[in-house]
Amino acid sequence: MKFTVSQSSLAKALLVVAKGMATNSTLPYLSGIYIKADEGTLEFQTANLTISIRHKIPANVEEMGETVVSGKVLTSIVKTLPDAPVSFTMIPSTRVVEISCGKSHFRLNTLDASDFPEFPAFALERSIELPSALLDEMVDKVYKVTSRDTSRPILQGVLLSVEKNTIRLVATDSYRLAVCDSHVETSSTEEAFVTIVPGGTFHDVLSSPSMTERILVGTTENQVVFVFGNTTYISRKIEGNFPNYRQLLPANCASAIKLDTDQFGSALKRVSVIASSNPSVRFDADADGHLMKLSASSPDQGESSELIDAEVEGTSMSIALNYHYVFDCVNAVGATKELDLELQGPMQPAIFKAYGTINYLYLLMPVRM
Fold first, then answer.
1. What is the per-residue pLDDT for 273?
2. Cβ 215 vs Cβ 132: under 8 Å
3. In the chain, where does the domain assigned CATH 3.10.150.10 lie?
4. In whole angstroms, what is the distance from residue 348 CA to residue 37 CA?
5. Which of 331, 332, 354, 328 minimizes the C-alpha distance to 341?
């Protein structure tokens, strides 16, 4: 095996497949990168117990071949090299690959490529092509709400559904729920496309440096497959039924509050300084005064409060919420100027809503006042 490739192209390729490397595996192959040199093309693969990634780039290949090298070592080397041609030469008799770039030279031990896990074969049962920028923005709004509890894997996933040119993502960790939807032109049939994707995987795929304008999302019996450009990303599908989130959404509310997002976020940041040991912040909506009072208290630190303008329709109401979770909502809303808050009662879920190109709903369970 012998080939030459630019440092920038190689570094980007390694970054693309890096997410597929196992970090704490006792099996060296799972922390390695498979490299195959073919006619004018380099193919890189990584695999762990849940995902497999394959990426191809053009290169000047003089001798075809394949090998497996330590992903961590190779990535560290390539990062330090100048943006110049990088040459790889395999020495079969010693199973060592020589790497040279300018005046730098390295000799790396390799593993037998035939022992590397074969890239999963797949035949898509359903698939849909979506705009990657929109999908990335939507995933960014919901994936942090997925659960970290490995005992309930279904809550670690994001529910993706596309029906009648509406794309919707849903995530929940049982304490909060995030739903966002947007209009999208698709070539799909009337039948809805529905699947559950691991939240972290979904985010990693959309943030790939090789991402193209559109991404193909497909499913098999036990896989979720993403194809974009010269990259194929396969993840194990989460089995089970996603919770019926619709039954959590009330038809009406007792108090509807309109907030300026920036003003609300800034006030929450100031008030929550006191709430470092107690993440509870109290929200008092005053329908008569058209105000919202944010307050927090700590036995060790003291108290804090701030009044902000708010349009309050319905009855005055108080509720206490975990401010860390409220911040997640404010950050997800981003540049949206107005944030709606709907309350049913002090011990019933609070619902935040924001509207725009992407409509966003965030349901949060209260804490005791």
1. 92
2. yes
3. 2-115, 126-245, 252-364
4. 60
5. 354
**CA 209 to chain centroid:** 14
Confidence band (pLDDT; 50, 70, 90) for 188?
low
| pTM to 2 decimal places | 0.91
Name the architecture of domain 252-364: Roll (3.10)
Task: Report the C-alpha gap between 171 and 169 in whole angstroms.
Answer: 7
Residue reference for tokens 């090998």 = 67
Residue 369's DSSP bridge partners are: none
Q: pLDDT tens digits for 252-280?
A: 899 999 999 999 999 999 999 998 778 99
Question: pLDDT (tens digit, 9 = 90+) per residue, 97-122?
Answer: 999 999 999 999 999 999 999 999 99
Residue 332 has pLDDT above 70, yes or no: yes
- Torsion angle of C-alpha atoms 25, 28, 29, 31, degrees rounded to 10: 60
Distance separating alpha carbons of residues 225 and 220, to the nearest angstrom: 8
Superfamily of domain 126-245: DNA Polymerase III, subunit A, domain 2 (3.10.150.10)
| Tens-place pLDDT, residues 130-169 | 999 999 999 999 999 999 988 899 999 999 999 988 999 9
Indicate the residue type of 12. Answer: K
User: What are the φ/ψ torsions at residue 329 (nearest 5 degrees)?
Assistant: -65, -45
Asked whether 134 and 184 are in contact (CB, 8 A), the reply is yes
* pLDDT level of residue 190 (50, 70, 90 thresholds): low
CATH 3.10.150.10 fits 2-115, yes or no: yes
CA distances from 254 to 177, 257, 285, 341, 345 (A): 20, 10, 11, 11, 7
